[in-house]
Amino acid sequence: SPFAKELKKKISQQAGGKPAKGPAGSKKKAAVAWVPGRTENGVGAPESKMLDRVDAILTRLLKDEKSFAFSEPVDPVQLGLDDYFDVIKTPMDLGTIQTRLSRKHYTKLEQVVEDLRLVWNNCRTYNTPDSAIGKVATELERKVEQQIVNAETAEIQKAIKKGTAPAAAPPEPMSDAIEPNSAALKRKRSAAEPSPMPSPQPSPKASVAKPPLPPAPTTAPAPAPTEAPAVPRTGDQA
Fold first, then answer.
1. pLDDT score, position 204
2. In the predicted model, is pLDDT for residue 13 greater than 80?
3. Count of CB atoms situated within 10 Å of the CB of 156
4. φ and ψ at 64, to 5 degrees?
5. Separation between Cα atoms, residue 54 and residue 32, nearest integer Å
6. How many angstroms separate the CA atoms of 163 and 113, rounded?
7. Which of 8, 34, 79, 182 would suit a FRET pair with 72, their CA atoms being 20 to 30 Å apart?
8. DSSP-derived secondary structure letter, 210
9. DSSP for residue 84
């Protein structure tokens, strides 16, 4: 069919070209595979933001000529692939993924990545990894996952700058004193503490007049002894 011929032509063009050589001694940086649950300082990228990011990545990818073979569901009848559904049990393509994104089918980035990997794995499973189209699938897979990792990193940095990460409570400012043992700080603490409840006082009673106590008895001094008059002796005359 015309579609099959066009597909084979594009695949041969993609696989036949040689990659351009960079400067002497330069090495191509290996692509980084996306992993779920990545965070920095306890902050992760918001799922809604990442779903929008992946939608934009797919839009750009579908404009790439290399994505031609993956943009629509495989039609085994049109391509003459009679055993396709015997080998591939869960077909997937980029166009279907983007439609699901627009219809809010996905709620997590991990779900989108699983379907993207299904596209590439289906291709390598049916055509072998070393085939022309299998190599294209691997190239696009690395490219897309690297873009997802870069987008996730950017969203995490935005979240950190906005203060999404839980921050520790700031210490209480000490404007009146610097030393913790200062009198001003003690006044603050005493003012913050609840004052003790006053102890109940007995109600005043009417005072009863008491009779005055009798004066203490005083002991009179004993009179000084007096000498008795001398008695004249017999024979004595006056």
1. 53
2. no
3. 22
4. -80, 135
5. 16
6. 28
7. 34
8. P
9. H
